Amino acid sequence: MAHILCGHTTGGRVTDSELTPRHLREAEAESVALLVGSILGPDGMDNCRGYIQGWLQGDSIQEKSAQKIFRVADQILKAGT
Description:
By secondary structure, the protein is mainly α.
């Protein structure tokens, strides 16, 4: 769901180009999952930060991506209420 709402696929509102690096797309989607999972409380969240860091390949999350991550997490949480 995060990939679609982040615009990473043709199935949703596309906001990223095909030139957006895969590692960034994955880090964004996994960050959304971490935020949503942290709020909903499922088990297994302990390893998410390391997984995201692995996808970032030493890069940091830029402001544009951070805004997208929070917006999409908020959309998912609001849809569940």
